[in-house]
Amino acid sequence: MADELMVEIVTPEKMAFSGKVEEITIPGVEGEFGVLKGHASLLSAIKFGELSYLRDGRRTHYAVNTGYAEVTASKVTILVESAERADQIDVERAKQAKEKAEQKLSKMAKEDAEYGKIEADLNRAETRIKIAQHVG
Length: 136
Known about the structure:
10 strands; 2 domains; 2 helices; ATP Synthase, domain 1; Single alpha-helices involved in coiled-coils or other helix-helix interfaces
């Protein structure tokens, strides 16, 4: 296709994905945003969440951790701490993490110094479970 966009998803350990896509949706810290070929150049911080792209009529989903996205008219480079494709997410581990976080939160006061961290752990586990449901 002429309207393809080059995308690279890079973590400290590996190149999680490199290829041409029709569109990509990124969880920016200012909100989710989509990119098509010809997009204005920008640099955005990425928050933990769901990243997805459309390629050959199929949408692929990733759980990505914090990082940055560099967008140009023909390329998007995603630099993140981690990226798990939906079919690679260990759902049982995510469910255990969710349960552990819920148990810890139920015994804490919101004023507790650890409350925000445990709440973020719960959010990550729930997001990973949701993204894993996109398999198939």
